Recover the amino acids of this structure.
């Protein structure tokens, strides 16, 4: 649980972070979304005191961080940056064990933690004795994340964590981040300028501009309910595809007309999937069918055209709400 | 060459050890100070430019000037040498430490800080290990420079391989120069190589390196103190390289009087300073030196007549006299024209920087000619007559005087090539024809060029005239060279002590000195 109360930071007497208050419940992911220079990174760095605020307080689990020893505070917060910043003179194992070594964990506890984290990150155990320069960029970033998680921090801060990775590796790691159990318990604050990444990772997204929070909402509300021009401007052309990627089949099922199983099936989708981007890109296939299933079996068949129609009905209802 | 090495292997080893120690301790100190300073500067960027500038300026000071600069404060010997070497080695180490740390990727530093490292942990675990290869490159640069500059330290009595080099230059002996130069180069190369081995895997081999350094720094003083002869007498001699090694210098004197004294090797001007500052108690100086009076020195009586008379006279080839027919008649007129008091006075004035060499030569010219010779002959078309000198005040003055005198009394034009680093060097240049004329001393000509048997020397020593005649006969036969009539003053070598100390110990003659020293052997 992290709480920012009226935080202001001035550079050359101008506010780069201007009276910001935020609340992130335990175990949730907040994404700080903004252009470069919006103040989002400054805001993040104030949480582990790499930067000290000029005004306001930051509380972690109810305790004001200004009252804690700065080293002790940082050792309890995981921190991942775009440039990774692995220590080139240390092996992967030494890198991962940075914080545990600083807080004097016993050796066997450290080595079992290192192998546990390698496994979580999907990396082979023999990587432990390699040096960072022997690894690919994606592998290095996984090590960077493992290093941040090593001492079981309750809070994880990530600054453009996947920005330098190529798109395929990036999707893979983003998906890991969403689904790996190791992240579940943790409170996460992620800085990014990538709108898709923000809506993919965030339980909530806060759009920041000129040091102020423009809007903070769930991705769903952001996309379907926001009236702010700034938000619309920021999301821009991506709005439609983002909307498509947000909605699960189960949400539109009440607007959907099922059909008899007749034509050829082009897709089989689980009811919890979000397949609308694919469905809307199937231009000349309105007469083809999608087979919808759930955990217990068949739910029904639907024509692609009817699925499209059901999504539009769902959207208009959401906006009307 | 090989024979020379065989004969001197002990001394070469000793000087190599001494050299290694001088370099080792100064580099060790530079590492400690340079790395600390470099690390400190990374925490204070404003001072960094200033300090690196200052160490850079120090690097540009010519090494010899730096050594000379410390003498008034620190005297001679190992201390000023180590300080100068230390300052020289400082720049590469400070600069590389600073830039090594400065150039570390900012993201790595941010990662380390955000992991909760303290300032010290950041430095010890991340910054220092990452900068080490760069720091090591600085240490290697410093080491190579240092071993080279350390040869110069021989000039201020600090010892090392420079002793061989400077002696070799003075005596124009190639084997002797190489006996110093080759070990010095090998030392530089092998130290650099050893450091390169450490550098390759510096993080793992840092401790062996520090241990090796500590051994070099620590072992020599122990070894030196064990090997040093016990100096119960408490007197130390300071001699210049030439006197130290010439057969008619210290080796002969020591034998003739059975005199045993520990002796420092010093550059000639420093020798007097050392005596004055009580860093040496006995030196071998020249009897016409003005400093005898101004420093209040006692010239010890040569009661066994070891030192032959050294009358100054122009030396010239017979062929040159034929080529320049007016020369002989003109120079012969100088016989007996320069009294000892006059040359001692001029030597002193020049040494005290009251006169330049030129002013002294002018005074000498006007004193000698009293305006009698007025030259109204037009210059002849002959090649310029090149006049040489040795590297001490009196020789400079006499050469400059000869140039003026010849131009005033003949139609020949002259050119000066002054400051040859040793008698042998100058004599060789003279024989090869590069130098046509220079002021030499009868005793030197006899003992260094003619080198007669000891019995012949003994029969000649009492009479300056006999020496001159005998020497000239031999020089003509052997080299086709003649010493013209002497200027009239005797500038012999003599042992000197501070008046006060000589009084206190009751020493008037060299035999007194010997007796004083021998008292301690019983």
């Amino acid at each position: 649980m992290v709480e920012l109360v009226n935080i202001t930071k001035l550079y050359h007497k101008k506010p780069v972070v201007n009276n910001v208050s935020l609340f992130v419940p335990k175990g949730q992911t907040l994404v700080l979304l903004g252009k470069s220079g919006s103040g989002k990174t400054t805001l993040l760095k104030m949480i582990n005191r790499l930067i000290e605020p000029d005004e306001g307080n930051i509380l972690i689990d109810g305790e004001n961080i200004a009252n804690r020893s700065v080293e002790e505070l940082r050792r309890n917060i995981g921190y991942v940056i775009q440039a990774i910043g692995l220590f080139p003179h240390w092996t992967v194992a030494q890198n991962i064990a940075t914080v545990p070594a600083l807080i004097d964990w016993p050796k066997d506890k450290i080595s079992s933690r290192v192998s546990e984290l390698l496994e979580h990150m999907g990396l082979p155990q023999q990587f432990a004795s390699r040096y960072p320069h022997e690894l690919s960029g994606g592998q290095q970033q996984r090590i960077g994340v493992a290093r941040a998680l090593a001492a079981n921090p309750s809070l994880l801060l990530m600054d453009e964590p996947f920005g330098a990775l190529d798109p395929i590796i990036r999707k893979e790691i983003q998906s890991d981040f969403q689904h790996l159990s190791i992240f579940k318990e943790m409170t996460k604050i992620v800085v990014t300028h990538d709108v898709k990444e923000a809506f993919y990772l965030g339980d909530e997204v806060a759009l920041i501009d000129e040091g102020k929070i423009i809007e903070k909402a769930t991705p769903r509300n952001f996309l379907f309910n926001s009236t702010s021009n700034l938000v619309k401007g920021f999301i821009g052309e991506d709005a439609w595809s983002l909307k498509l990627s947000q909605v699960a089949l189960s949400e539109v099922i009440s607007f959907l007309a099922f059909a008899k199983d007749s034509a050829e099936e082009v897709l089989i989708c689980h009811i919890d999937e979000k397949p609308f981007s694919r469905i809307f890109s199937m231009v000349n296939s309105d007469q083809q069918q999608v087979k919808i299933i759930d955990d217990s079996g068949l739910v029904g068949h639907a024509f692609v055209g009817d699925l499209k129609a059901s999504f539009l009905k769902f959207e208009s209802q959401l906006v009307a709400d | 060459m090989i024979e020379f090495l065989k004969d001197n292997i002990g001394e070469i080893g000793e000087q190599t050890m001494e050299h290694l120690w001088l370099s080792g301790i100064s580099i060790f100190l530079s590492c400690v100070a340079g790395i600390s300073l470099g690390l400190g500067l990374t925490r204070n960027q404003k001072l960094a430019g200033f300090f690196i500038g200052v160490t850079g300026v120090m690097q540009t000071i010519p090494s010899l000037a730096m050594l000379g600069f410390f003498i008034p404060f620190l005297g001679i010997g190992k201390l000023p040498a180590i300080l100068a070497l230390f300052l020289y080695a400082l720049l590469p180490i400070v600069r590389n430490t600073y830039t090594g740390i400065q150039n570390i990727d900012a993201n790595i530093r941010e990662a380390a800080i955000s992991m909760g490292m303290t300032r010290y942990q950041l430095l010890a675990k991340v910054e220092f290990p990452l900068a080490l290869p760069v720091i090591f490159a600085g240490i290697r640069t410093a080491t190579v420079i240092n071993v080279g500059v350390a040869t110069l330290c021989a000039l201020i009595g600090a010892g090392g391989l420079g002793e061989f080099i400077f002696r070799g230059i003075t005596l124009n002996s190639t084997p002797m120069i190489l006996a110093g130069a080759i070990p010095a180069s090998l030392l530089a190369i092998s130290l650099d190589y050893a450091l390169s081995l450490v550098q390759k895997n510096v993080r793992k081999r840092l401790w062996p390196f520090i241990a090796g350094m500590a051994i070099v720094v620590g072992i020599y003083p122990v070894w030196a103190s064990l090997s040093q002869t016990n100096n119960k007498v408490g007197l130390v001699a300071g001699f210049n390289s030439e006197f130290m090694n010439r057969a008619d210098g210290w080796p002969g004197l020591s034998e003739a009087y059975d005199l045993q004294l520990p002796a420092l090797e010093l550059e000639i001007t420093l020798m007097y300073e050392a005596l004055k500052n009580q860093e040496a108690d006995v030196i071998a100086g020249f009897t016409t030196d003005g400093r005898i009076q101004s420093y209040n020195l006692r010239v010890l009586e040569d009661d066994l007549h070891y030192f032959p008379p050294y009358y100054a006279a122009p030396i010239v080839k017979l062929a040159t006299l034929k080529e320049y027919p007016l020369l002989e008649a003109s120079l012969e007129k100088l016989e007996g024209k320069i009294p000892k008091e006059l040359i001692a006075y001029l030597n002193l004035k020049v040494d005290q920087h009251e006169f330049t060499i030129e002013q002294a030569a002018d005074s000498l010219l006007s004193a000698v000619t009293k305006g009698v010779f007025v030259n109204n002959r037009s210059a002849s078309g002959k090649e310029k007559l090149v006049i040489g000198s040795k590297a001490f005040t009196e020789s400079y003055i006499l050469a400059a005087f000869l140039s003026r005198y010849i131009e005033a009394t003949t139609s020949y034009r002259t050119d000066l090539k002054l400051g040859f680093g040793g008698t042998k060097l100058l004599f060789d240049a003279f024989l090869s024809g590069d130098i046509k004329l220079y002021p030499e001393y009868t005793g030197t000509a006899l003992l260094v060029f003619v080198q007669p048997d000891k019995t012949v020397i003994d029969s000649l020593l009492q009479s300056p005239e006999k020496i001159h005649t005998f020497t000239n006969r031999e020089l003509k036969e052997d080299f086709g060279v003649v010493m013209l009539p002497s200027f009239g003053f005797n500038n012999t070598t003599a042992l000197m002590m501070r008046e006060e100390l000589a009084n206190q110990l009751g020493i008037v003659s060299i035999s007194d000195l010997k007796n004083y020293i021998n008292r301690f052997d019983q």
Remarks:
- The CA atoms of residues 103 and 282 of chain A lie 56 Å apart.
- The mean pLDDT of chain A is 89.
- The two ends of chain A are 31 Å apart (CA to CA).
